[in-house]
């Protein structure tokens, strides 16, 4: 048999392998602009937590996490408010824009950016059980107290930088201590009151400041206007947390004025929305058609 015919099967196999491992964009399967932005923000905030983004022929994306969990970016279902909280997709979690800066008005009903959380993502980020989360923590000083904070994805380091800035703020105005102390944090593996959802405190990625002095929505009649309380909380304290990727529950409709949690993806989205030029992670290498052999798996 001529040599050129012997080479044909090898050439076909090579072309097939290249087609299967090619980025989804080259096969006509593209991410919508919002999905591409949102997933690039996640990759920037939490490097390495996504190992692949699989795109089907209709352009629907499934995110594969580092622990093997598969999450739809957008499952296409209309959801009630409770369904958004109990079973959101990634698009739902990032849909409400977090408002950086001073509070200027009461938020609209159910406008609580950050309160919608994709729990499997947090499990992959910080640990699947109390023991694993605890092993991922280190003690961080906080204004004379010490609390465990999760080291993964820069959370503990960011919390330490917040504390340093708060010390400077309190040195200039010691009267602000009443808004901050005592504080509670650490690994508190529990569900949110009245729900079956894990609290972010389960992952040691949040802190409650002066819980007895700062109000929580469940203690008030529905629709209570607390604008003076929101605006009376020291803006410099909120700014110190936001500068390091934390969001404040005092900006939620279902207010939790004591609560700050590490959500760098929401702060990144807010900074992009106000026109900041931020270099986001390149996710093109993660995007593949459904069923394709990913480069990381090649040769295994």
Commentary on this structure:
- A hairpin with a 4-residue loop joins strand 2 (61-65) and strand 3.
- The protein has 300 residues and is an alpha+beta fold.
- The two termini are 33 Å apart.
- The protein is 33% helix and 14% strand.
- It has two domains: 24-98 and 278-292, no CATH class; 101-262.
- The chain contains ten helices and ten strands.
Percentage of β-strand residues: 5-15%
Total domain count: 2
Structural class: alpha+beta
Quantity of strands, as a count: 10
Sequence of strands across the biggest β-sheet: 3-2-1-10
The ordered string of helix (H) and strand (E) elements is HHEEEHHHHEEHEEHHEEHE
* Major sheet summary line: 4 strands, mixed
Helix proportion range: 25-40%
Number of helices: 10
What spatial form do the alpha-carbon principal axes imply? Answer: globular
- Tell me the span between the first and last alpha carbons: 33 Å
Question: In angstroms, what is the radius of gyration?
Answer: 22 Å
As residue ranges, the low-confidence spans are 10-28, 295-300
Question: What is the mean predicted local confidence, pLDDT?
Answer: 90
Q: Summary?
A:
Helices cover 33% and strands 14% of the residues. With 300 residues, it is α+β, with helices and mostly antiparallel strands.
SSE order and pairing:
Elements: H1 3-21, H2 33-45, E1 50-55, E2 61-65, E3 70-72, H3 81-86, H4 90-95, H5 119-126, H6 130-135, E4 137-142, E5 145-150, H7 155-172, E6 183-184, E7 206-209, H8 227-232, H9 235-242, E8 246-248, E9 259-262, H10 264-273, E10 287-289
Parallel strand pairs: 1-10
Antiparallel strand pairs: 1-2, 2-3, 4-5, 6-7, 7-9, 8-9
Helix pairs in contact: 2-10, 7-9
